[in-house]
Amino acid sequence: MVLIIRERMISLNYRDSRPIYEQIRDELRKLIVSGALATDEKLPSVRALAAQLAINPNTIQRAYNELEAEGYIYSVPGKGSFAAGNDAAGARRREELLRQARDLLRELRYLGVSQEELAALLKEVDQ
Amino acid sequence: MKSKTWSCDRGLFSAGLFRKNLSRFWPLWGMASFLGLLMPLAVLFQKLRYPELVIQPLEVTAGYYDILAYAVPIVSLCYAILCAMTVWSYLYSPRSVSMMHTLPIRRSGLFVTNFLSGMAMMLIPYVVTGAMCVLLTLIYSCFEPVGLLVTVLGVLGDSFFYFSTATLAAFCVGNIFALPAVYFLLHFLAVMLDWLLSTFAQGYLFGLTSSYSGTVEFLSPTVYLLDRVNVDRTWQEVQARTALTNTGYFTSEFAEVTLRNFWLIGVYALVGVALLALAWALYAHRRSESAGDVVAVGWMKPVFRFGLAALAALLGGQLLYALFWSSFQDGQYYDSVPLVVCMVVAGTIGYYGASMLLAKSLRVFRRSWPGLAAVALGCIALCGILRFDVLNIAGRVPELNSVKEVRLDAAGNSYTLYPGEDNAVIEQIRQLHQTIVADEDYICSWQDVWRYATPIGGDEDDTVTSAYVALTYDLTGGGEVRRYYTLPLTRERLAREGTYDNLLDRLINGEEMKTRRLHAGDSRYTVEGGYLYCDVSESGYDLNSREAASVLEAAAKDAADGTWGTYDWFNEDSGGDYAIDLELQFSYADESTRSSNWITIRVRPGMENTVAYLKELGLVTDRDLVTYAELDDREFALKYGGVPTEILTETEAAAIGIIGGADGPTEIFVTEAVG
Amino acid sequence: MIEVRELVKRFDGFAALDGASLSVPTGSVYGLVGPNGAGKSTLIRHLTGIYRQDEGTISIAGEPVWENSALKARVAAIPDDWYYFPQSSIRDMMRFYRSFYPAFNMERYEKLKEVFQIDEKRPIRRLSKGMQKQAAFWLTLCCMPDYLVLDEPVDGLDPVMRRQVWSLVMGDVSERGTTVLVSSHNLRELEDVCDHVGIMDHGKVLLERSLAQLQDNMVKLQVVFSDGVTEVPAELPVLHASKMGRIHTLIMRMSAREAEERVAAYSPLLVDAVPLTLEEIFIYELGGVNYEVKDMVL
C-alpha cells in the first residue's frame, strides 16, 4: 500500500505486524523529521486519507492524535492538521527513542562494537 | 436528492415491484393474450371470407356464454397456476426471498402488490380478447351489452377465485415443483376421494357400484362449475315462407339464451375472498427459512404425511390388489386379508415417500414406527368397517320423509317420483328395495354364476332371466343414495307373492307406471315433436308438436285398453313389434333444471288407436305394418328362397320369377313410378 | 446504533443463535468474525428483517427491525449471494431499487459508473462473479444507507477492486457517519477497516471490543530466559506458550509494557514485544474456548 503526499512516496508494509496506525504515524513522523513535510504544511484530512488508503478513519484519527500528542503536528479546528517544527519534538518521543537507542547500543556492544566507533557514528549523524 | 419514485411508506402497494413483475413475466401474459386473440381473429376472417354471413347479437351472447360456461373454468384453472408460479416464485429460493424481505416494504405490501400483479396477468389476455370482440361486434352491428357484462363479471369472478386458490397453495409449499402438485390436488381431491371410496365400497357392499357419488362435487370447483353452469338455448317454432314458391313451412328460430346457475360463480368468488384472507394469514406467519422445503407450514406437515399415505393406500392398494389378487378373488367382493396387505404396502410407500419429501433426504426410517402403525391401523379399520358393514350402508333404505326425489330405472325406462304426489309408488319402491336387500345372499349366488357367463335375456333358458334395477334417492339434507342391482327373475318367483320378482313385476306393469312411461298427465313434460321411420318404405318423417301430442293421446288410449305397455321380462325381443321406429320428444322443466327427453314407442299389432292415427296422418300404410320377425323372414327368403309369397311385392315377385297364378301374390301393390 | 440482545433462533431444533448479543456504535465499522457455522449469516439476516427471532431483541437506531419499512429504507445489505432478477441489467436493477429507497442518489450512480467501468445495460448474469459483486456495491451504495450490513463483501474481488470498494465505504463512514457491520473471514483486511471487532462462535458472541482495546491488551513476547530458567515460570499468566530452541514465545493478555515489566523480574537475556495481528488474536481468543487449535509456529 502506497501513500503519496505531494509526490513523496511512503510505503506501508502489509507484512509488517505493527498495527496500521503505528505505521502511518511512523511514516508521517519520518516525513516531518526529514523535512519532506515542511513546517506549517497542511496534512491530508482524515477523511481524504481514509478514503485514499481504504482505512478506517478512526485509525487515521488515532495516528494524528498521537502525532499531536508527541508534538509533531498541531490541528486548527475547522481547518485541519499541520506539520509542526522540528523544535517541538515531544519529550515522550525522546524517551521512546532513547530506549530504543539503549537496546541498539546494548546489541552493538554485545557484537563487539567499540566506544570509539559509536562516538564516530554520533559525529556522523550530526553532520 | 430524494428519488421521486419512492413509495415505501404508503405500505400496501409498490408500483416499482408491480411494473417489474409485469415486465419480467411478459412472455406468459403475452402468449396468453395471443392465444386469446386467435378466436375473434378467426371469426373476423370468416366474416371477411363470407361477407354475407350475418352474425346475430344473440349468437354473440350465446358464444360468450358458451365460453364462460365451458372454457373459462378450465382455462382459469391452468392459467392461474402459471401466474402464481411466476409471481410467488421468489418465495422458493433463499436468495430471492432474502432480497424481497430486505427491501423497505412490509410483507402486507409484498402480498398485495404481488397478488395484484398476478390478477393483472390473469386478466390482461381477457381484456385484449374482449376488446377485440367488442370492436368486431361494433363493426358488424351485433353488439350486445348485457351478455358482455355478464361474461365480464363471470370472468372476473372465475379468475379471482382460481388465482386466490393458487395463491393459497403457493403459501402452503416452499418448493416450486410442489406448488402445481398441491394446487391440482386441492382442486380435485374431493372428486378423487369420492371416486376412490366409491370404488372401495363397491368392492364390499351389496348394491353399490363404482360410479362416483358426486356428493362433494362442490368441493372440486372446476368439475362442479362445468357441470352446473350451463347455457340454455331456446328455440321457437316460427312459421315462415320460402322465398321462391311462397309455401309455408315451420322452422326453428333462435329465440333466447340464458346462463343457468350463473350465481355459482359469485359464490365461488366469495369463497375466494375467504381463501385470500387465509392466504394472508399464512404469509404473515411465513418463515423465510422455509424456502426450499416441500411443505412450508409446520402444522401441515403431518397432514401431508398421513394424507399422502391414505391416498396411496386407497389408490395403490386397490391397484396392487387388481394386479395381483383379483384373479384369485372368490366371489364378487374383495377378499379382505389380501386387500389389507396391499393397502398397507401401498400406504407404507406413500408414508415414506411423503416423509422423504418433507425431510428432503432418503434417511427417514428411524423412529417412524408409530406413524407406520397408524397407517396400518387405518387400513385395517377401513376394511373392517366395510367388510362387516358396520354402518349398515348396504341395507339402507331411506325413509319417505327424508327424500325429496326418488328415481327408478328398470326395464329400459326411467321414472322420477316425488314425495307428496307419489307417496304410494314410493312406498312400493321402498318395499321392493327392502325385499331385495333381505335377499342379498340369494341374489349374490346368482351373480357368482353369472360371473363367468353374462346374464342372458331368457332366449335360451326360459326359466331365469335377469333384470337390471337402479334406485336413486335424493335426500332432503343433500346427498344421495344410489343402488344398482342385477336381479335374477324366475317364473316361479314371479308368480309367488312377497318375492322381489313379484313386487317388481307388479310395480312395472301396473297402471301407474304405464301412464308414467308416456309422461301422460305430467305437466312438467311438454311434448315438442317426434320422429317416425318405416323400415319397409324406408321413409322418415318429423312430427310437429301437435301431431306428436295426438300420437301420445292415441298411445295412452291403447295403454288403457291394455294393448300397450306390458313388459315381458323373459322376452325383450322386439321381433313382435312392427318395423316402425316411433319416437317422441319431450322437454322437461322444473325450477332447477331443463332437459329434453325422448321416448320410444314400440308399436305392436293390436295397438289400434295408435295405428289408426298414424294411418290417418298418412304416415303409415298397411304395407308398413309388418313385424321385424316377418321382415327378417322375407329377407331370408330373398336370399335363399322358399318363403310364403303372399307377402312379396310385385317387383320382388318378378325378381324371383313368380307372377300371377294361384301361387302368385294375392294383392298387387302399385309401386311408385321412378324417374 | 445497532443493538442485539440475547438473540435466539432455532431451525428444526438446532439453535443457530443461542443468546447472541452485540452492540455496534453509530458511525463505527464493526467486524463480525467467527468460524464457519458460527451463526454470522443468520445474525445478519435478522438485522435485515428476513428472519424473525425466537427470543431476544434486535434494534437499529432504537427501533425494532421486523416489518419496519421506514427503518429498512435506511439500511442496505449486501449478502454473500446477492440476488438479481435473471434477465436484468444493472440499469434495470437500479430502477427497481430507486422505487424502493427514498434516498437513492442518481448522481452517485453516474459517478460510480465511471469508477466501476461496467456496462450498465449488460445482463448481470453475463458478468463475472467479481463484477457482479461490484455491481452489488455500486447499487447498494447509491441507496445512501445510514446502516450498511455486509456479508463476506470482498470475497472474489481483485486487490485493486477491493481497495476501491473499501475506499468508497470508508469515505461514506467518514463523511456521512455510516455505520457498517461487516462479516468476513479475511481478518487481515478487517484489521484495516474495522474499529470494533466481535468474535462469534456456536451462536454466541464470545467477546466484542474496540480494535484498539484488543490490540493493546494482548501481546506476543519473545523471551530468552537466563541460564537458570528452562521452563516458563508458573506465575506468569500466559495464554499460550511455545518454544523453539531457547526462544520462548509467550502470548499474554496484557499490554506490552506490563508484560515486559512482569518478565523483567526474571532477568531475561532478551525480551521482544510484538503486537498481534487480528488473526492471531482471533485464534488465541477462541483457543481458550474448546476450539481445537493446533500448535502453530508463529
Topology, pairings included?
The complex is a heterotrimer of chains A (127), B (675) and C (298).
Chain A: E1 2-5, E2 8-11, H1 20-34, H2 46-53, H3 57-70, E3 73-76, E4 80-83, H4 91-110, H5 115-126
Antiparallel strand pairs in A: 1-2, 3-4
Chain B: H1 15-24, H2 26-49, H3 57-87, H4 94-102, H5 107-139, H6 145-172, H7 178-202, H8 221-228, E1 230-241, E2 248-260, H9 263-284, H10 300-324, H11 336-359, H12 369-387, E3 403-410, E4 413-417, H13 423-438, H14 440-450, E5 464-475, E6 480-490, H15 491-495, H16 500-508, H17 511-517, E7 525-534, E8 539-543, H18 545-561, E9 580-589, E10 594-601, H19 608-616, H20 628-640, H21 650-656
Antiparallel strand pairs in B: 1-2, 3-4, 3-5, 5-6, 7-8, 7-9, 9-10
Chain C: E1 2-11, E2 14-24, E3 29-33, H1 40-47, E4 55-60, E5 63-64, H2 69-72, E6 75-78, H3 90-98, H4 106-116, H5 129-142, E7 147-151, H6 159-176, E8 179-183, H7 187-193, E9 196-201, E10 204-210, H8 211-216, E11 219-224, E12 240-244, E13 247-252, H9 256-264, E14 270-275, H10 278-287
Parallel strand pairs in C: 3-8, 3-9, 6-7, 7-8
Antiparallel strand pairs in C: 1-2, 1-4, 4-5, 9-10, 11-13, 11-14, 12-13
Helix pairs in contact in C: 4-5
